[in-house]
Write a structure and sequence with these properties.
Blueprint lengths: L4 E5 L5 E5 L2 H9 L17 H5 L32 H7 L27 H5 L10 H6 L6 E6 L2 E6 L7 H15 L7 E5 L29 E3 L9 E2 L16 H12 L8 E8 L5 H7 L11 E5 L2 H6 L13 E6 L8 H6 L4 E5 L18 E3 L4 H14 L1 H18 L2 H17 L12 E3 L1 H5 L4 H9 L19 H32 L1
Parallel strand pairs: 5-6, 6-7, 8-9, 8-10, 10-11, 11-12
Antiparallel strand pairs: 1-2, 3-4, 3-5, 4-13
Helix pairs in contact: 6-13, 11-12, 11-16
Bound molecules: 2-acetamido-2-deoxy-beta-D-glucopyranose (5 copies).
Length: 521
């Protein structure tokens, strides 16, 4: 894909760029499914939550063979919410599903959420003491593409500006699926969503110079988006690709993750190419252009095999060469940010290969759970080629260790980033956010009700296909996972320091490796 920059007038009258995330392009490249697995016909109504969904652990009965037929002791029944597009197209009104039991009373208990959920507490900390007021939310409108109001479990939309491609569409779709999965369980709230890559709520503009956090006029506007960094206070939320990226044929994560997991079984780590692989669009960021220099030539071999992804060409050829599941062929895979975070990260980590992670500047909702040398190998940003060369040499000389870094990353992805947890993250983030509300949102005349029917009934092509494939069929039969407590500040800082010191350790190995190389020559 090109680095297409589209300028639009926002509601505020400012021109602002709508840009696709370069990162994605990488991601995209990465995948397309490999095998003929593609031939597998997914029925449109694939009951995704049945598959991914809460596996009922045990019925809650305390004694075995207790035949007391009380509901609470029976495993809950899976309810399917009907989709009737004939009805919708006749009435043009969203159906009222309130008669559908939410399973609230009978849901099975669940596990504790993955550790990265603890960042939810941190991300909402700016509003912990003040709560969230209408004024704060209104201020976040400046750059938002839309506002979603949730009232009594229903969603209402106010649209402010056009987002790039279908990222806004699949984001809203994902939120509707959350409402189907946990009906009636979210408090009333409203939130502004900005679909552009880069975070914009600069921390330095708030609490400037003091711990002013009780002063509501000095509190940042709460703004949701896909990534943030250490200088910003934007609230991170799962990106659209979990429900599909129609433009580049990246399937919903539920389906794609299964295909990738199957694909990994085809080649053991040892039988993969002993080099570092990257494929993506270099034109979106200087750091990616810099990575191109590490490609193998007649004269040098940095152990890197680097390819450009041409999305326009790919779309013409049916995405045969961008199949993500067929890109797990090397022992090492490079992850490098584009203009901001990249959706490619989960696909790279899912490969069973060692992820060589070029020092990132942005985080999304799950990447703060990654630990260097456990889940990935850190690569220096300003000395990429030598850093990659050393990483590959080290891994080929320490095959067991390298293999287990690859395995730990894919375990993380398949266990802690399965769709159940993506929904639970959204649930806990939005519940905690909603609890901070100091007002009850109301509907303006611009607000329209958003429902599965209004999004999918008149949809077309791959967009509609991905929606049908990622549709949650009905209320979950398990509870959301249990939120872990906030970090206590000393242990949070200790964790961050530990990560930093691992990275420094690798850096010092690298230095001594190159020192030795230089003294040999
Ligand atoms: C439990 O109840 C069912 C149906 O009422 C019956 O068929 C079954 O034999 C009972 N099981 C036990 C262990 O009592
Ligand atoms: C869908 O709605 C139409 C129109 O109200 C109705 O005739 C039809 O029976 C419904 N189909 C199902 C499967 O409920
Ligand atoms: C749907 O439309 C029909 C015909 O206009 C009407 O009789 C019915 O009450 C409507 N149902 C709902 C739920 O709005
Ligand atoms: C809150 O902060 C604003 C801007 O920094 C300042 O003008 C105002 O006086 C403060 N109010 C209180 C009650 O401290
Ligand atoms: C990197 O080198 C390989 C092998 O020579 C070549 O096929 C590929 O096109 C190169 N990649 C780029 C981005 O130039």
């Amino acid at each position: 894909m090109r680095d297409t920059k589209i300028l639009v007038f926002g509601q505020d009258g400012f021109l602002r760029p709508l840009m696709k995330s370069p990162a994605r392009s990488t991601a995209v490249l990465l995948f397309t499914m490999i095998f003929i697995f593609g031939a597998l016909v997914y029925t449109l109504l694939l009951p995704s939550h049945l598959i991914s969904g809460g596996t009922p652990s045990k019925p809650i009965a305390t004694t075995k063979n207790n035949n007391d037929s009380k509901m609470s002791k029976m495993p809950p029944k899976q309810i399917e919410i009907p989709l009737n597009c004939t009805f919708y197209n006749l009435n043009k009104t969203c159906p009222n599903h309130q008669e559908i039991p939410s399973n609230n009373q009978h849901r099975l208990p669940s596990s504790t959420c993955p550790d990265y959920f603890r960042w939810i507490h941190e991300d909402l900390r700016p509003w912990a003491h003040t709560g969230i007021t209408k004024d704060m939310v209104d201020k976040a409108r400046k750059t938002a593409a839309f506002k979603l109001v949730i009232l009594k479990g229903k969603a209402y939309l106010e649209t402010y500006s056009k987002a790039f491609q279908t990222r806004d569409v699949f984001t809203k779709w994902g939120i509707l699926q959350l409402l189907r999965r946990y009906p009636g369980m979210l408090p009333d709230m409203e939130f502004m969503f900005d679909c552009v890559d880069w975070p914009v709520i600069l921390a330095e503009h708030y609490y400037g110079g003091g711990s002013n956090s009780n002063n509501a006029t000095n509190v940042p506007p709460p703004l949701f988006r896909y990534c943030a960094n250490d200088a910003t206070l934007d609230i991170v939320f799962p990106d659209w690709s979990f429900w599909g990226w129609a433009e580049v044929n990246i399937k919903p994560w539920e389906i794609l993750s299964k295909e990738m997991k199957e694909g990994n079984k085809k080649t053991t780590w040892l039988n993969r190419e002993p080099y570092a692989y990257w494929k993506g669009n270099p034109d979106v960021a200087d750091t990616r252009k810099d990575l191109m220099k590490c490609n193998v030539t007649d004269k040098q071999d940095w152990n890197a095999r680097i390819y450009k992804q041409d999305w326009i060409q790919e779309s013409k050829e049916g995405y045969k060469k961008s199949n993500l599941a067929s890109q797990c062929t090397h022992r090492y895979k490079v992850y490098i940010e584009g203009s901001a975070w990249s959706v490619s990260e989960k696909y790279i980590l899912a490969c069973d290969s060692v992820t060589l992670l070029v020092k990132p500047h942005y985080y999304d909702f799950f990447t703060r759970g990654l630990i260097p040398m456990k889940h990935y190998w850190p690569i220096k940003e300003d000395d990429k080629c030598r850093s990659i060369k050393f990483a590959v040499e080290w891994g080929n000389a320490h095959q067991n260790e390298a293999n287990s870094i690859g395995k730990a990353a894919s375990d993380f992805i398949y266990d802690e980033l399965k769709m159940d947890y993506v929904y639970d993250y959204m649930f806990h983030l939005l519940s905690s956010y909603g609890k901070l509300f100091r007002y009850t949102p109301s509907l303006s005349s611009e607000a329209v009700e958003l429902c599965v029917e209004s999004m999918v009934c008149n949809g077309k092509g791959r967009e509609k296909q991905f929606m049908m494939e990622s549709m949650v069929k009905g209320p979950a039969i398990t509870n959301p996972c249990t939120m872990p407590p906030p970090f206590d500040p000393p242990s949070l800082h200790a964790n961050l320091r530990r990560k930093e010191s691992v990275i420094q350790q690798v850096d010092s190995w690298e230095k001594s490796y190159w020192g030795n190389q230089n003294s040999k020559s």
